[in-house]
Specification:
Elements lengths: L4 H9 L17 H21 L1 H19 L25 H8 L7 E3 L16 E4 L6 E4 L4 E3 L3 E4 L8 E2 L6 E3 L2 E3 L6 H4 L16 E9 H5 L9 E2 L1 H11 L9 E5 L10 H6 L3 E2 L1 H9 L4 E4 L17 H10 L2 E3 L5 H5 L4 E6 L9 E2 L4 E3 L1
Parallel strand pairs: 9-11, 10-12, 11-13, 13-14
Antiparallel strand pairs: 1-17, 2-5, 3-4, 6-14, 6-16, 7-8, 9-15, 15-17
Helix pairs in contact: 2-3, 9-10
Bound molecules: acetylphosphate (UVW).
Acetylphosphate (UVW) binds next to loops.
Amino acid sequence: MQSGWLSQYFRQHDGQCGHGDSAPVTPEATEDSAVSRRDFVKTGFVAGVAAGVAAGGVVAQAGKAEAQQAANPMGKDWWPSPWGPADERGANNRMTPAKALEAARLIKTGRTYQLGMILESGIPLFGSRHVSVTIPGGPTGGPFGTHVLYYNDEMFSGEIGQVGSQFDGLGHISNKVGNEIRYYNGFTQDQVGGAYGLQKLGVHNLKPFFTRGILVDVLAHKGGERLPTNYVITMDDVMQSLRKQGTREPGEGDAVLFRTGHIKLWKKDNAEFTKGCPGPSNTVARWLVEKKICVMGADTWAAEAVPGEDPNRPFECHTILIAMNGIFINENLNLEEISRDKVYEFAWSFNPLPLKGATGSPGNSVAIA
Ligand code: UVW
């Protein structure tokens, strides 16, 4: 279980994050803000009477915005997607032949960099997730034939798409909007849920990613061994890092990877690793949405800052990217080697495991310089 505010968070929200009818926790739901909301309505009423119809119109406008916020804690409904109301691939649609050719042109030396960490027991894990690999028998089977052949199999158990250097698919994140749990493209829990694999938005819908990747080496810019746990990366950090590196801003269909140095805690101090993590702010995530990227990655377990800007709204970048915009997240990456070699722009590839109905995929994304 997580330490610090997250375990606190889990305790407070036990029974609220399932399918119950309880409203999502937002700052607006707190007593203080309820009071200020009442005051706002009262003030609006008085102002409306005093200043006539014009002022009343402004108040009505504000009231409408507030009602929208109450109906959808993210401020607006995010469906249908730009790829149509039936789309299940999101930003994976940006993987075009032209994009693959653009990525191929970035390959100059042919050197490959493994970005995935080894998937094994003992790695840091979120919440109560687990990883177990066992080899039944010893060897598992055989002997066969006169050449006396044996074979080994493995048994794996674990949340296969959500452990290790995981790739979050579009069925991973949803938010309560009004009375419905809503996913990417507005799909509801009834449409997506399935005891033996998601009925919609499974990672098997995705085609391989082969695209331009860029490293935003925030640690190199800020200096030190690693960014402080829960450091929130600002737009200024991003722009200064890119300027220092001489890297072009992200373009449509790019994969953007943030280095914080947090991965140095991997298997060395798992408690500190999972306590929180540094990562991009919501503003950075929204900028990446504007840039129409396909994947945001990082060397941390959440890829975004935890607890982030508002502890009452954990994993908000997950919602902004995955649920609202169909953009994928690749977590727990080893970005140390590409940082060391100053590989800032490269061909990036990841081929999600076509596991039917899975929420994500294990794997090993690669940078080719
Ligand atoms: C959650 O599942 C909440 O986070 P992550 O995608 O970082 O594992």
